[in-house]
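Record format v2
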Amino acid sequence: MAFNLILMGLPGAGKGTQAQKIDEKYQVPHISTGDIFREAMANKTEMGLAAKAYIDKGELVPDEVTNGIVRDRLSQQDVLTNGFMLDGYPRNLDQAAALDKMLADSDRHLDAVINIDVEPSVLVDRLSARYICRVCGATYNRISNPTKVEGTCDVCGSHDFYQRDDDKPETVKNRLAVNIKMNTPLVDYYKNQNVLHTINGERDIDLVFKDVADVLQSVND
Ligand code: AP5
Ligand code: MG
Ligand code: ZN
């Protein structure tokens, strides 16, 4: 199955977690702007160092930078063949308009926007309990989603995990505030395009995924 999909939701809503499950089932290229920035920061590239100043404060990286990264990635062959799931992009109306133009210029359209809906009050605790495998990037949670064997990654067997710098409570507060402000206009934007599917993200990960898979099935029929 090939589809052009956006996963949206507040920080910690479960975008990356659901993307991982979609990828296992459908092998669609996963484009997370946050992951791209973290990789650039780890490699200390010029773009990464510039982005770090914003990310450390929980602010958005400027649109020119982010739009350019997405434009490049969307023109690569795997995406042209298999579609994409965008995770964490677009995050404001200007980015949404830029994406519409990128897609229109290459005769593509969105099949679905899945909005993973979670009350902000749940998210601070969720994010402070998140841990990530340093080797393969699989994401876990001390409370809701631990590894099957303590200290060992389910996916790759590594014992090396880390926490994200921007998951510290001080940064999370601002990240949430910034994203909450942008979220409602974006939801309305995609509602008006008739592509929005809102899913209750406050249930077990597998139940959320069942709804995600139902949406993907429905847009492919
Ligand atoms: P990004 O990395 O995208 O961060 P985010 O949007 O804050 O989202 P997260 O990755 O924190 O959450 P998620 O929804 O993926 O949740 P996850 O699945 O991990 O962006 C980081 C920064 O980069 C931004 O702040 C910004 O500075 C910059 N940036 C990125 N994109 C940008 C853009 N377009 N424009 C400008 N700047 C941009 O799950 C979270 C935790 O909960 C995990 O522990 C998981 O195991 C657990 N969990 C998942 N689902 C459930 C469930 N159903 N129940 C219980 N626990 C669950
Ligand atoms: Mg994520
Ligand atoms: Zn791993």
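The first strand starts at residue 3 and ends at 8.
The CA atoms of residues 74 and 80 lie 7 Å apart.
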